[in-house]
Amino acid sequence: MDIRHLIRGTKLYLPVWVEGALFSIGDTHAAQGDGEVCGTAVEASIETTVRFKLHKGKTIQGPRYEIPGPPTPEADSNGYYVTTGHGEDIYQASQHAIRYMIEHLVDTYKMSEQEAYMLCSVAVDLRISEIVNTPNTLVSAFLPQAIFY
């Protein structure tokens, strides 16, 4: 699960589907945007300390988590530049939003397309902005301005 909000102080609830189930942690990231759009994150060797508590009799269908504070306090200080993408499904709309963000980064910051794409994967957060008008979905790509200051 590549979820940028699984940080210190997070409570992660996992379903246990088999008796004697095991647990492992791997592929830790120092930075990643929500959506990890091109498989690029800032991979890092990270030490973790975890505590386990089995909630006997409790069942959940999939992972859930509680975070200890605002989701992106490090990025919120200088606002965001946001592109939107429209499509017939979430994936297509996400692709458009990221393409438009890449165009912005290339035009504004003179990055190569490859550099811009990698930056999108480690710093841009994808948010579902609209699904109510299916098949017309809208996804927003949030670039924190704080990374340029």
From TrEMBL:
Alphabetized InterPro entries for the sequence: FmdA_AmdA (IPR004304)
Protein name: Acetamidase/formamidase family protein
Coiled coil regions, renumbered to chain: none
Name of one Pfam family that matches: FmdA_AmdA
Organism: Paracerasibacillus soli
Signal peptide: none
Origin superkingdom: Bacteria
